[in-house]
Specification:
homodimer; 429 residues; alpha/beta; six-stranded parallel sheet
């Protein structure tokens, strides 16, 4: 059964932050590899876009800009894809799997959109294709879902899985600063990219939630099925009110298995101060899971960065090496053996925080309350404060309501002259 | 490669809380097993001490009080040992492994004291012997240490791994009640056993820390090497002072890999209010880990109970089933490939919280400070309060100090007439 290779060769695709981290980590762990995998581990090739660029830390001799050189090298056992993006990464992975190589990847874009292609190919050819680093950096989440928690019916996942937005919201909460200022600070510190769209609009978190949902619920969920709403509309006032009510605002990826289908969405949410996710600040990530046997589990750690992400990739590489040695690659498939429908956002149910700027005259509160009531929205808490001479600020927290009903009520408010502005709409845990 | 069994048979040893939970969980998960493991899963036998006792929930036909019936049944693929205690569990496990069966166990006593025997046998015979449920119930910790975190040099583990003591300390902290009263309440609610020694003296936590250390540091650590100190001396005053200083008192299992060896101990500790472990209350467990690549990771969840523990056992059973199907049992060995010495408590270094009742007269503080200084103990913070007409309460927090030096200073205090009582000695994070 035991292959007993003396050396296992890998190729790394991409020499960026994570690629560099993995390269260094392999160098550092080299002396222990024979004990861990019964073989030495060698980085035989690193694929880069340009050979002209200086790559400090890399051995020049392993660099190549020619994918065919890797693909056609029968001595390369494992391809570690860290280029990101859909193409050419997707093509390379499929070609590598077909050529008999095992694959480790951290590519959430690819997995959340083209999972059927890459995972299907891995399954068809009996290869390993594993991707712990695609979600929540160093935090073990994909493997626990597949193994330690496999005896559960998982019904809920809530995750802070985007460090950039968590940094911005944490800063806003700590200092009272507005969104634009906090974003500028995050950009300056390198926490936000020059084009922060994928982070602040919730797309990055949405991809990670799609991947976790597929594995947890055993039913394929892809990124286009995830409802996403970012943090760009969150104001200092929203955060102040949330605090006053005992809540913290976080950008959460939420996936729930209900009797009527899967709910899967990313949006800002008010969560109670004492919830295990409320204390997760700055660039940390955390995932909260609920299963029928295990009850609640929270996993917390670094969601990004050179070495934390490399740590997850390295765990996958070691796992694949062990599988190669024992001849059991392809042992864990994607396991989407169910076919559960994904609900539209309108079919989901949520509690809402609603902040309205209204005309300050008698009867307005009654009007607003009537609109909510007519649309089946029940009020849990309401606070009214004077805003200026002619207007008042009305803050409502609702009971759980069908999203469609709530959005109908908002449409009515939009057409009412007494409602000057719908200033804030945020879901509540 | 693929064994392709149509059915996998297991025997459960023990029909107590966890055994019952596993039995029910297997019934519940039955419809999904073909998708998960490519086979059905059958509980063929359950070993009980007495067949006379009523076992609601169990099929009478599977119950047996005869171990040989299980051992000699070639159709039983997996033995799930949930009896607890060293014997006869140890003998049964060794016999099962030799007879070609794979073993899942939750037996921390056995693993922390006779690991060399049972794990050695598994390795010699190439069997699976896995035990996620032995530490921290439903929380995935053993498997992540072996797989997801395998690319790290783990240097620190700090865990709240005993629910009973965490419940008692949480109650004391919330209500201001004393230790005896909180223990009585825990006993009444079923959180503490009739003889709570193993919990309140830190033995249970010590066993779990020994197991985690062996796997994290790749060097065998057994329970007798763990320094243990329980919570029986913690008073309401200690907790009040800790709060005043911004700390919470928790019973922690601590294991550190230092340049001079492994530190491994269980004792109460003052941890800062904002540390991820401080918020872990009641019967919850949590483990904080630090590795050179992953940085800090905290895993939190239910550490005990019928279904949370069964969840961990079930994850192990599913893992073993997959290994059986792929012919790769014994794939992950205990991996104690290093031989690192364990330091005595005197060689360890700690910060201390020290509460003394002293005579209230001039020069006493100077005396006390001199004794600390002479023994190399540097003071970080000191508070003196009047206690009664003739005595004062002196509370000191020290800088990190060699435990031997600190204990020498305590010996001096013991012989000083101005020191009426050493009222509290607790380590500080």
């Amino acid at each position: 059964m035991y292959n007993n290779k003396e050396n296992i060769n890998i190729a790394i695709l991409g020499a960026g932050t994570v690629g560099g981290g993995v390269y260094k980590l392999i160098e550092r762990m080299q002396p222990e590899m024979p004990d861990k995998i019964g073989a030495s581990l060698t980085v035989k090739k690193v694929l880069v876009r340009s050979l002209a660029k200086e790559r400090p830390g890399f051995d020049r001799n392993v660099l190549t800009d020619n994918w065919q050189e890797i693909l056609n090298d029968p001595d390369i056992d494992i391809v570690v894809e860290l280029m990101g993006g859909i193409e050419p990464a997707g093509t390379y992975i499929v070609e590598a799997l077909k050529a008999g190589k095992q694959v480790v990847t951290a590519n959430k874009d690819l997995l959340a959109e083209c999972d059927a292609l890459v995972l299907g190919t891995a399954e068809e050819y009996g290869r390993d294709l594993i991707f712990e680093a695609a979600v929540a950096g160093a935090i073990p989440i994909i493997r626990p879902l597949r193994q330690s928690m496999a005896g559960n019916n998982i019904t809920e996942i809530m995750g802070i899985v985007n460090g950039t937005t968590n940094y911005i919201l944490s800063k806003m909460s700590e200092t009272g600063m507005g969104y634009e200022e906090a974003l500028a600070q995050a950009t300056e510190l390198g926490y936000a990219e020059a084009d922060p769209t994928a982070d602040v609009e919730g797309y990055d978190a949405g991809r990670k939630v799609a991947i976790m949902s597929s594995i947890a619920f055993h039913s394929r969920v892809t990124f286009p099925q995830v409802y996403t709403e970012g943090i760009t509309k969150i104001t200092a006032e929203d955060i102040r009110y949330a605090k006053e009510f005992g809540y913290v605002i976080k950008l959460l990826g939420v996936a729930r298995l209900t009797d009527t289908g899967i709910e899967v969405k990313v949006h800002p949410m008010l969560i109670p101060k004492n919830h295990s996710l409320a204390a997760v600040s700055d660039a940390f990530n955390a995932v909260f899971l609920h299963g029928d046997a295990m009850d609640d589990i929270t996993l917390m750690g670094r969601g990004a960065g050179e070495f934390p992400t490399a740590s997850a990739v390295m765990g996958d590489i070691i796992d694949v090496c062990r599988n190669i040695q024992w001849g059991c690659c392809g042992r864990l498939s994607h396991e989407c053996y169910k076919d559960i429908s994904v609900k539209s956002i309108g079919e989901c149910s949520s509690k809402f925080f609603l902040r309205l700027i209204v005309e300050d005259r008698p009867g307005v509160l009654a009007n607003i309350a009537a609109v909510l009531g007519n649309n089946g929205v029940s009020i849990k808490k309401v606070v009214q404060n004077p805003k200026d001479d002619t207007s008042a600020e009305l803050v409502v927290i609702t009971d759980p309501v069908c999203e469609k009903n709530f959005s109908d009520a908002l449409s009515v408010f939009n057409g009412m002259s007494v409602v000057k502005k719908i200033a804030g709409v945020i879901r509540v845990y």
